[in-house]
Records
---
Amino acid sequence: MTLIEELGAWLADPAHWTGPDGLLTRLLEHIALSGACLAMAVAIALPIGLWIGHTGRGAAAVIRAANIGQALPTLGVIGIILPLTANIEPYGFDLIPSIVALVALAIPPIVTNTYAGLRQVDPEAIEAGRGMGMRELQLLGLVEVPLALPSVLAGLRISAVQVVATATLAAVLGAGGLGRLIIDGIAQQDDAQLFIGALLVAILAIATELSFAGLQRLAISPGVRGRRAVRESAADA
Amino acid sequence: MTTAAPDDRSTVAARGQPTDTPASTTGAVVELDHVTKRYGPPGTPPAVNELSLTIPAGEICVLVGPSGCGKTTTMKMINRLVEPTSGRLTIDGRDVMQLSPVDLRRQIGYVIQQVGLFPHMTVGDNTGVVPRLLRWPEARIRERVEELLDLVGLEAAAYRDRYPSELSGGERQRVGVARALAADPPVMLMDEPFGAVDPIRRDRLQNEFLRLQSRVRKTIVFVTHDVDEAIKMADRIAILQRGGILAQYDTPDAILSHPANEFVERFVGADRGLKRLSLARVRDLELIRPVLVRAGTDRTDARRELQASAIGFALLVDDGGRPLGWIRDTDVDEQGPIDPEQATPGASLIEPETTLRDALSTMLASSVQLGAVVDQNERVVGLISVDQISEVLQSGNLPGSTDATG
Amino acid sequence: MPPGEPLLRPDWVVNNLDVIGERLAEHLGMTATAVGVGFVISFVLALLIRRRRALHATVVGAAGILYAIPSLALFAFLIPFSGISFVTAEIALVSYTLLILVRNILLGLDSVPSDVLEAADGMGYTSRQRLWRVELPIALPIIVAGLRIATVTTIGLVTVTSLIGQGGLGYLIVVAGINAFFPTAIYVGALLSVALAVAADALLLAVQRRLTPWSAARGETS
């Protein structure tokens, strides 16, 4: 059988679509795992990024830690966590190590980009805000965050794509998600299953990339967008 | 202002001769013959239009004009960074289009405003770039680099191994000039070379460069938008107007005393008379002999000398002969040694190469209307006064006018 | 994990130093191959883009899509064609380096100030001389920065190739460790791969500092 014929045959089986191990289930598992990890990462990373960006305190140490964090191989992190949680019921073996690794993977880009975005805010705008009598939190919410939003969202986008891509590895420990199709495909030498799994993950990752890019475009104040456009064209000249 | 508009060509003098011994000319004649540059297709307005200029060997020709007049384009056609649309450019009779651009450029020095030193090379390596491209032996390059750095006033031993990022703006510009001179090119192109340095350093660099030119005698094409710089630096000025049309090409003095048309007149400004003062230098004046006193000099001696000289001020100098301040003649009436506390500090220091115009404004800005002329070691060699310069303005005759450029 | 199994058995480490060394060498070899091949391809692509700017969007776009595909998925795509093999692993690893390397080589070359380029042209450098003697040396810090990111990323990804029968230190993590319920192998593999990433990064930075003494000179004065 050629690959195309194998694919056709695999897809023709309805159990491969809607069964308890079907690809719809796997897709939903993948999205749920990625979404949950990203949400946890945002909850941890965003306050840290905002704090060091607004106050400048501890920034050097945090950024250095984030850079080292980015160098950690995800499989290595999963491996390191696994023996510590393996005996925790019910998810200690198959899920918790992956969740920890994915959250750890997602935190650094959000922290560094949030920090960089806040640091780029024109000090005059902050001064003006302060001059108008804004409190620190108002300053952060009304001036700094809107101006830093492009950078914050860029960090979120990097994290989201990485989490969606890397969630595939959760299957190594026996958890669900689209990685299941690939790992099982390799183990069973089932090229069709392998290929479908890979295709879906790739599409999901690229779709994540594109939707965050769209979100970035929508969420940025027209004033900031306009300024960027002017700057870019000036750089071209 | 001055009513004297001398027609006499012998007084329509260019700059005085430099004090250093002039070297024989090593420059080459640069000739532009109906040169046109059009960036768009035929029919679009040209950037440079049918320009003809002959630049004699060993002279500084300054191209000056408002932005968009094509001065930089004109200069860049000489080393073919811009290719002419039509017309002929020759260097010593050789058509530049007949050489490959690379070979041509290695024979022409090139200095630009931002200097463009290579950040990854030391000062020595930067200076030796063109000789290295020309495959000179390493020993000769090393020797040449040393000679050049000394020539531009940077001690080779101290500067050779530094990187450009460790230099001040003025030092970078000097390295830029040394680099352009490295292969001893007959022609140098300079695009606003002193445009990025502050006014005080610019003046110093200009003076230094003129001193250097009096030794090397290259043919220099110098672009600037600053009329005052043009007047100061040029043997000849080519004033271009928008669209690359030549408005006037003549010596600075001729342009100031006889602007060819209304455009030139407006471009050089209403203070033409005052600007002509830029054409003469302090060394062309007869210096007044100073009365020098040191801390501790006996006041009686100072008084006697001051009465003889009739300038009313003695100049307080340190042990090295460097000026510290002025001592008024009324302050030496009493007995005893001179007290440095009495001096009015801040004597105007003037170099022999300073133009009369700059000297005048320096002196007018200080409380004592005298200037101390100092040598390279800041040692006093004489004095000048505001009166001397206003005499020049009234007579219309520039001092030291032996017309060097013919 | 078997209850009572310690996290680290020093005796296993001591008795298996040869196996560990082999896997470390394999890891290094796979990383060097991927980054080396990736760099050559990226360099050629970057020079092509410089000659024809129109290629920029296409090349960077394609490299961006490759980069967004999860590593395990990319291995999976290739298996039907090149099997569960070293070649499959390397094709994927090389693909991941392209985006970072092309982008940084271009950024580096674009970072050369225009006045420096004008001076080089004005002094009579040929375009090849200008590239090798002026532009590349000045671009070096940014190019090496790209190499550092690519190397660290690749070291992490090599562990994933253990899932298709390769893997270097990933073999210790997955096959000898997770699959065999043996924490010691997991820790040895994971810690060594992290250490390798940190060491490679530091080494490349040191090499770059050595090669670009002028950027240190800048740091001193400013």
---
Amino acid sequence: MNFYALFAQLLELVIALIMAPILNGWVNQCRAWLQNRSAPPLLQTYYTLSKLFHKDVLLAHNASSLFRAAPYLIFSCMALASAIVPTLSTELIFSPAADAIALVGLFALARVFIALAGMDVGTSFGSLGSRREMLIGFLAEPALLMVFFTVSLIAQSTSLATIVETLAHRDFVIYPSLAFAGVAFTMVSLAENARVPIDNPTTHLELTMVHEAMILEYSGRHLALIEWAASLKLFAYSCLGIALFFPFGIPSAADPAALAVAAAILVVKLALGGFVMALIETLSAKMRIFRVPEFLGTAFLLAVLAMLVHLLLETGQ
Amino acid sequence: MNPSLIHAIPLSGQVINLCAAIMLLLGFAMLSQRRVLTLINLFMLQGLVLFVSTLIVALTTGQSHLLWSAGLTLILKVFALPYILHRLIRRLSVKWDIETLLNIPTIMLIGIALVVIAFNVAQPISQLSGTITRATIGIALACVLLAFLMLITRSKAVPQVIAFLAMENALFFAATSATYGMPMVVELGIALDVMVGMVILGVFFFQIREQFDSLDIRHMERIRDE
């Protein structure tokens, strides 16, 4: 273990924790602009978080210890996930420890706990949200795994650091399979982050909410942690998209100068990515919950196609 | 499997591969698209991708007649046919028509199966061919089969015609990737055929609608003496 790798790892984690609420605020701001509304400030998520951290926690009488532990677990899962994705450097101390499949596992762990917490108190909304979340989760996960398998076939490794290394630092090659995988990944990340075609993050309308329904019983610092974890998840997915499909500019060495440049490039990419996400959200209408299997089924099929196209076009038979 | 082999393909070949992949993607998008208007736009995009790939093949191989067919593709499939289709659906007032497609996931699964079959069938063919685009024969074949599938699953007249045109697109792409295109006379003939066919089908639409009060061709399955 060298010192720079440790430094890069810590820096990445800190940047993820700080940047995630800003990214969330940026997406909301872009969305407001695109919809001709006056935008909330960029740091709005921070204000919300600090307000929630200052409030007391109100617990339902029959809330179990799982209900109280879940926010911490979900938050640590998401923080770890954002630390695994190489954003600033491919030389990270976590990268040998956890690969892409472990990352999917981390997301799944967080999902299981948030669903259990949703059902814990026993309100009807909580269990409704949990069931919907599990429906979306079980359809989105295979699609995400197929996307990872495709890029793993290209890089001959499931380690995210090796994948980024292969895509960013070898000779420039166009991989048609990545076009398919990219579309599939975008669809999955919209579904996983409770974005508009699947779920509306701003609504509290009973019949349509998924993510909000599960966390309805949370308050105070628990809610703050879950909100922060949600923006960390968005950040992790955005960084994952950048790492897999636009990895240019992620250095392989972890010296401070390279890290600074990489951080600047990362901010630009995230700003662009957030704008595109807001654009997609503005242009599409929320779909009925029974259309979701169709949407995610399409994502899965696209990911399978990506793998087939890779086998046909890129292995050179 | 050797990952370094892809590096042996020249850049133009890679761009053509990318175009082929986008063709396939558009094929699937058309297969699952319910709206007539979006279907026409997708068809136009497919024509554009076809134009780009033909142009690149023409420029890299120096086949001058391919330049002509690329130009023909641009005029016919990117401008003329979509324009005619747009005008048709406006005059038939089916612009916002939504077709009820049964079970899109099943159709998509069949589509995937077709792609696997096409890739396997095309593999021996592509080994015989000596063009730089031989890897895309499988994709072209898959696009043809997908258009076939679309032809089977649609019941309205306009989407069927679009499926037919998409099939022509895919056949043209297959010809370009397998043998650097057909002779100029054949290509001109096909282009004219498609053009005339489009005009005749446009007249047919009005006749069908007048007869059955709908563009659903299922009505035509029951033919009676009157």
